[in-house]
Write a structure and sequence with these properties.
- This protein is an all-alpha fold and 358 residues long.
- Helices cover 62% and strands 0% of the residues.
- The protein is built from 20 helices and no strands.
- It has helices at 10-19, 26-39, 45-56, 63-70, 75-84, 90-99, 102-109, 116-125, 128-136, 144-151, 154-166, 172-177, 184-204, 219-230, 234-245, 249-255, 261-271, 275-285, 291-303, 306-321.
- It is elongated and about 85 Å long.
């Protein structure tokens, strides 16, 4: 147990002597490693931190000792080895990238060189500050897989969405799938990507030229949702919406938040709800909406193509569930929506009316 029998500074003194020279013969390294393995468990916390700092940049630090320091439960002891030592195993870096904490993930993100697998683990688990380090590095290139991993993380998109998009680290599918978490400045780009994807689907539909017959509105479901909105029963409304769209209930509850009016409008458009019903839903279930905000949402309803709305909802479904859902209900039409092809290129300008809040 650490601290149960302090070495009275013996290992620190040995380390200071060892690091005064850059080259050692095999016997000297063996003796130092044996001493370190015996004394490190009982070395004081302050000395362990100092030892880690001294050894982190030494070219001949024994690998076993390096791994012990990098895996030390004290973050200030582990940090120097994780940050500066070139000889760490990829397995150790991966374990730390997954387990954290972010202070040690920062050390890994700042290492002189990084394997793609380690970058991938950071993309999956690190916080926004760590991801920001990767984005700022000129020598780190995010692969399509890395970008896709970041695009699946709502917390990262909400915090770094503008930077990810500006560095081409958020692809069209990521923009559309994370629409509910995007900064307002990016929502118009997500809608543009959905409109383009919808047009591509129409053009690729076999035997139909450039026209695809729109899916008929789900009248029964729309009427049921309208009825619950008039009753101001948000719980039942969210449950019906979840059944109708195949989205998780948590996502549909999110759509009823005051700051998610554009998402709710898109969902209702995808169902084929009439403008009159949409207006009633927004007024009844979002009573705090300003008149200008309500007008903006209705403008979004008018300008958004139904195919684009369906594309967006499909991407939310894939984002939440990770696979093509097969959830059938009494309200759904026969035949579920298929997977969405990514837009080939995201347009710079948006040929649409502004979304609410943008």
């Amino acid at each position: 147990m650490r601290g149960s029998g302090p070495d009275r500074g013996v290992l620190l003194a040995a380390t200071e002597l060892f690091t005064q020279r850059s080259r050692h013969d095999v016997e000297e390294k063996r003796i130092f490693l044996e001493l370190a393995c015996n004394l490190l468990p009982s070395t004081s916390l302050q000395d362990r931190r100092r030892i880690a700092t001294l050894l982190a940049g030494h070219p001949e630090i024994p690998e076993d000792l390096l791994g012990a320091l990098a895996g030390d439960p004290d973050e200030l002891t582990a940090y120097p080895a994780l940050r500066y030592s070139p000889g760490l195993s990829v397995d150790l870096l991966l374990r730390t990238a997954v387990a954290g904490p972010d202070s040690l993930r920062k050390a890994i993100a700042n290492r002189p060189s990084l394997r793609e697998s380690v970058i991938g683990a950071l993309c999956d688990h690190a916080g926004a500050d760590v991801i920001g380090i990767l984005l700022d590095r000129d020598d780190v290139t995010l692969t399509p897989d890395h970008r896709a991993r970041l695009g699946r993380r709502s917390d990262i998109v909400a915090t770094l969405g503008l930077e990810l998009a500006g560095r081409d680290a958020l692809n069209p599918d990521g923009l559309m799938g994370q629409f509910l978490h995007l900064p307002n400045q990016l929502k118009a780009r997500a809608i543009a990507a959905a409109e383009m994807t919808s047009l591509v689907k129409q053009a690729q539909a076999p035997g139909s030229g450039s026209q695809v017959r729109a899916r008929p509105p789900r009248r029964k479901l729309c009427d049921g949702l309208h009825r619950e909105a008039i009753r101001q029963d948000a719980t039942r409304f969210a449950d019906l919406l979840s059944q109708g769209l195949g989205l998780p209930l948590e996502t549909c509850e999110l759509l009823l938040r005051q700051d998610q009016g554009d998402g709710l409008t898109i969902a209702l458009k995808a169902l084929g709800m009439s403008a009159r019903q949409v207006t009633a839903v927004l007024i009844r279930l979002c009573p705090g909406l300003s008149l200008d905000h309500l007008r903006g949402l209705l403008r979004l309803y008018r300008t958004l193509g139904m195919g684009a709305a369906e594309v967006l909802v499909d991407q939310w479904m894939l984002q939440d569930q990770g696979t093509q859902p097969q959830h059938e209900t009494q309200f759904q039409d026969t035949g579920r929506r298929g997977g969405i092809a990514s837009a080939a290129k995201l347009p710079e300008s948006v040929p649409l009316g502004k979304t609410a809040g943008s």
